[in-house]
Amino acid sequence: MDYIIYTLPNEPCPVSFLEMFGNDQPVEVEIGCGKGRFLLEQARAHQDRNYVGIEWANKYFRFAADRMARWGLANVRIIRTDAKLFITRYAPPDSLAALHIHHPDPWPKKRHHKRRLIDPAFVEAVGRVLQDGAACSIQTDSADYFEVIEKLFADRAEFQSSVRVIQSGQTGDGLVPTNYQVKYQRDGRTFYRLVFIRVPRSSQPSALGS
Q: Which residue of the set 2, 24, 66, 105 is catalytic?
């Protein structure tokens, strides 16, 4: 299981995905991988891509790592760290082929909004680490957080909206459901899904508007 778990350096610095996996396959990151259902199914189905799961809750982190080791997949790693720290300080610029964010904690009370993962600094960092044409896919069951997230990305010139889905029960887009999604489907919750594409840097307007 040792090779499955990746330990970040103590001092924040860009990590090398080439060293992490031993190859230069495209890298996708899932934030909040939980028990690893989505991550593992994707890794098994697309072995020409590498997958990194970020999880902070130690119980789920250990469960997912054990699950990954039992599956014997070479193209998946899991890191126990703060997701915002990883994206803003450890993920190298122009390095991710996709970013998946599933049901981030909405921190619904106003006084807790500062704890939310997706804020202006995080969105700016996502634009920095995604490769041209790469997708940031976000799903939530919070209508309020959905509106906030949509505006944060829409306000950035680095992104172009690709998918906007509001659907009760299931998303129906063919993606592997997460453990949370399966649970929430049984509850009949409404899902809000957004996908934003990283605009090619050559076509992005400069800060001077040229």
A: 105
Q: In 10 A of CB 24, how many CB atoms?
A: 9
Residues 6+ apart with CB under 8 A from 77: 3, 4, 5, 6, 20, 21, 50, 51, 52, 53
Q: Which residue has the tokens 């982190």?
A: 61
CATH fold of the domain at 17-203: Rossmann fold (3.40.50)
DSSP string, 188-207: TPEEEEEEEEEPPGGGSPPT
105 is catalytic: yes
In the block, residue with structure tokens 């804020």: 119
Between the CA of residue 7 and those of 37, 82, 98, what are the distances in Å?
Answer: 21, 12, 21
32-88: pLDDT as tens digits: 998 898 999 999 999 999 999 999 999 999 999 999 889 899 999 999 999 999 999
